[in-house]
Amino acid sequence: MARYSAPRGMHDLLPSQAALWRRSEEAFRRVFLSFGYREIRTPVVEHAEVFSKSVGEATDILEKEVYSFRDRGGRLLVLRPEGTASVVRAFIEHLQSEPYPLRLFYLNLPMFRHDRPEAGRYRQFHQSGAEILGSDHPAADAETVILSLSLLQALGIGETEVLLNTLGCPECRPGFVQRLREFYAGKEELLCPDCRRRREQNPLRLLDCKEESCRELSRGAPSTSAFLCSGCREHYGRLRALLRSEGVAFREEPRLVRGLDYYTRTVFEVVHRERGVTLSLAGGGRYDGLAEILGGPPTPACGFALGTERVLSLLPPEKEEPPQVFVALGEGATEERAFAFARKIRARGVRAMAEVSGRSLRAQMRSAHRAQVPATVILREEGAVFRDMESGQQEEGTEEEIARRVVERFGC
Ligand code: HAM
């Protein structure tokens, strides 16, 4: 028989890792709610156009990384590669009448990109993120940066750096893009094959290519700051002032452009550096034109997403919460009684598991030891026994007395 493994770049979340995921979800949910955000969950699958129109046809994500398929009705669908376009689609479909600005968050939603898997880069990964729809004010941008840092701090991750840039708006960006085209003209042979292709359609991406030859070249390229219109300059200045007033350290990074086409003005990343390795934990920015591109009303907006796998890779594994009581069947006891006993104590907040394998009492006790439960209740034909697994001490009593004893020790 063939032995199957999970698809390349996709991972099982095993019980030993689940406790950390649960803790991070709980911490993130608390932080999002404390900032007044409301939760949204969109389908894993969207119509392909939601992404081709928004993320951009000429981006790596759309050109190379998207998982797409036709459904039985012949419609082209994709597994979502990111969350923002889906949230904006849902906003246009359901939430336009809600009071602005609308603050939404999503927690650990699976995303899919058919990229070459390597450390920290997966084909299925998970993002938590937030979007503010309906504000063009730099305070909204500042809030998203602060919120992304608060999430990381809630998990005890403090040694991060915020990289910040502005990409201008439809008024000033074309002038900048034109200057970039001129700068790269005649230098094609110095570019990597991807950048040679991008040069025409998406010259901004040339600035953040990771290939050494392209990086070297981009050091001499013009930067956005010289081309910003007064509105963009003011917006960026106010954002920086707000971040400073909140004590947020950031580094301006004129080469930061990010891999999605929908950004206008602010873009940022939160990175973690350790032993020469830079890990991008979160990324985001402003996307004032996206709602209109997707057929909605003009709605200035901004947000960010944080990659769960990358963030959790910085933390030690969390201790699991094992069951507290094993309900064993002694001579003459039945499964019905074990189920009923376990149900009663669970209702009082005890984590209990009952024997379901029909084994001898000796085998049951061995498995209770292996499961590291602190206590076992052995049901007998009459009454029950409470056994402390560490000390080996036993107490006998009626079922009710033993249930009370268990609840006293473990219940809430
Ligand atoms: P992004 O930078 O593509 O932005 O992804 C955000 C975060 O998701 C990254 O910083 C990283 O932690 C994680 N991530 C991305 N790709 C992978 C991968 N292949 N494997 C593991 N982790 C990954 C967005 O997706 C935008 N939607 C963010 C946003 C929200 N902008 C505005 N609102």
Describe this protein with a few key phrases.
alpha+beta, 412 residues, 36% helix, eight-stranded mixed beta sheet, binds histidyl-adenosine monophosphate, elongated, 14 helices, 16 strands, five-stranded mixed beta sheet
Per-chain topology:
Elements: H1 15-34, E1 38-39, E2 45-47, H2 48-54, H3 60-65, E3 67-70, E4 76-79, H4 84-95, E5 102-112, E6 124-133, H5 138-154, E7 161-166, H6 173-184, H7 193-201, H8 212-218, H9 230-245, E8 250-252, E9 266-274, E10 277-286, H10 290-293, E11 301-307, H11 308-312, E12 325-329, H12 335-347, E13 352-354, H13 361-370, E14 375-379, E15 384-388, E16 394-397, H14 399-410
Helix pairs in contact: 1-5, 5-9
Histidyl-adenosine monophosphate is lined by residues 82-84, 113, 115, 121-122, 125, 127, 129, 131, 259-260, 280-285, 287, 303-305, 307, 309-310.
Structural features, described:
By secondary structure, the chain is α+β, with helices and mostly antiparallel strands. The chain is built from 14 helices and 16 strands. The chain has helices spanning 15-34, 48-54, 60-65, 84-95, 138-154, 173-184, 193-201, 212-218, 230-245, 290-293, 308-312, 335-347, 361-370, 399-410; strands at residues 38-39, 45-47, 67-70, 76-79, 102-112, 124-133, 161-166, 250-252, 266-274, 277-286, 301-307, 325-329, 352-354, 375-379, 384-388, 394-397. It has an eight-stranded mixed sheet, with helices on both faces. It has a five-stranded mixed sheet with strand order 13-12-14-15-16, sandwiched between helices. Strand 14 (375-379) and strand 15 form a beta hairpin. Helix 1 (15-34) packs antiparallel against helix 5 and helix 5 (138-154) runs parallel beside helix 9 (230-245). The longest helix is centred in the first third of the chain and has 20 residues, at 15-34. The chain is elongated and about 90 Å long. 36% of the residues are buried. The mean pLDDT is 94. Histidyl-adenosine monophosphate is lined by residues 82-84, 113, 115, 121-122, 125, 127, 129, 131, 259-260, 280-285, 287, 303-305, 307, 309-310.
